[in-house]
Amino acid sequence: MNSETDGLTSSVSNASDNYQFKHIPMKYFPPFLKKIDEKGKTEKSIHLPFTQLNLLNGHTYGEFVQEFTQLPQSIAERQIKTFYFVRHAQGIHNEAESKFGTDHWESVEAKSEQYFDAKLTDFGRNQTKLLFDSITKMQQSTPTLKFDLLIVSPLTRAIQTAQIAFQPLFDNPTFPIYSHEMIRETIGRHYCDKRRSITELKQLYPRVNFSEPGAFNSDSDILWNANERETQEQIQLRAIKFLNWCFDRFVDEKHILVTAHCEIISTCARILGANDSMQEEIIGNKDKYEFKIANCEFLPIVAVRYKNRL
Questions:
Q1: What's the pLDDT tens digit per position in 9-50?
Q2: What is the phi-psi region of residue 88: left when phi exceeds 0, alpha when psi lies from -120 to 50, beta otherwise?
Q3: For residues 98 and 90, what is the distance between their CA atoms, to the nearest angstrom?
Q4: Where are the domains of the chain?
Q5: How would you label 104-126 residue by residue, b for 16+ Cβ within 10 Å and e otherwise?
Q6: Which of the four pLDDT bands, split at 50, 70 and 90, describes residue 3?
Q7: Residue bearing the bigger pLDDT, 156 or 8
Q8: Domain 79-89+120-184+196-306 has what CATH class?
Q9: By CB atoms within 10 Å of each CB, which of 1, 236, 255, 288 scores lowest?
Q10: pLDDT for residue 1 is more than 50
């Protein structure tokens, strides 16, 4: 076995022309999968309480940090990071879909401008406060875990979630907080997924850096289209672009918080190899599974990027 891939699993061969990604399975976290039955419906996946931050019983984040720091950080041309993905809390669009049903939501409500750049509901704000409490307790018990930066989707619900859940980071004027176009929810048709202009976002959220090179290409939302919904292939391409941007831009940073959306987080997990390794090691390949992260769920993924020359 090549030393560059020893101990790693689940490469995504088409991740990039120049790079591949691999996931390092860690014993501290559960599989994030939903089993699909013969009728195409999904069974409930594993979701641990906010108080556990998806940490399996019998483990601590202190143990995880200690093992992570012992991983080979500087093998030639290898980069290792932990991404802490957080899906936004419940938004008004999530509430509407639950109220009207998915079919009516897709055909009618999602096309209504009243859901433009959907904000959090009161329930969503309470979810986020619970997440804040859990993260505060975790950091008090694990002072060795220090997040290096936070990256948020430019959609309001994701920024609001980050503001509440990671309030101490927003209160710290020197802590780096960025936004990136590529970690939006699926683009097109749904008004809830249309973003505000960068000019307006800068006024609303002055603590967030919307000007980092490579993060945005236009002030207005030129990607959103009222008639077409983004394909899975298009989502994968922007997920790859985002992950490569993280590895290129933040070479020395190892612990990256990302507050985003269900589909883009699921896609990042697949690209990083987390889903494949979970299927292979936890449940095998006998059944069909899909990945889905719940509102306000906290998902750590340890990943490696290496040059595509193996």
A1: 333 334 455 788 888 888 888 765 544 555 555 554 555 666
A2: beta
A3: 11
A4: 79-89+120-184+196-306
A5: ebeeebbeeeebbbbbbbeebee
A6: very low
A7: 156
A8: alpha beta
A9: 1
A10: no
Tokens of 7: 């101990």
Residue 287: per-residue pLDDT:
43
Q: What angle do CA 32, 35, 40 make, to 5 degrees?
A: 135
The average pLDDT across 224-236 equals 93
Number of other CB atoms surrounding residue 139 within 10 Å:
15
pLDDT value at 5 more than 90: no
Phi (first) and psi of residue 194, to 5 degrees: -90, 130
How does strand 149-152 pair with strand 177-179? parallel
Tokens 């430019």 belong to 154
Close Cβ partners of 88 (under 8 Å, ≥ 6 residues apart): 120, 124, 153, 155, 157, 158, 160, 161, 259, 260, 261, 295, 296
Q: What is the 3-state secondary structure (H, E, C) of the chain?
A: CCCCCCCCECCCCCCCCCEEEEECCCCCCCCCCEEECCCCCECCCCCCCHHHCCCCCCCCHHHHHHHHHHCCCCCCCEEEEEEEEEECCCEHHHHHHHHHCHHHHHHCHHHCHHHCCCCECHHHHHHHHHHHHHHHHHHHHCCCCCCCEEEECCCHHHHHHHHHHCHHHHHCCCCCEEECHHHCCCCCCCHHHCCCCHHHHHHHCCCCECCCCCCCCCCCCCCCCCCCCCCHHHHHHHHHHHHHHHHHHCCCCCEEEEEECHHHHHHHHHHHCHHHHHHHHHHCCCCCEECCCCCCCEEEEEEEEEECCC
Alpha carbon 252 to its chain centroid, in Å, reads 20
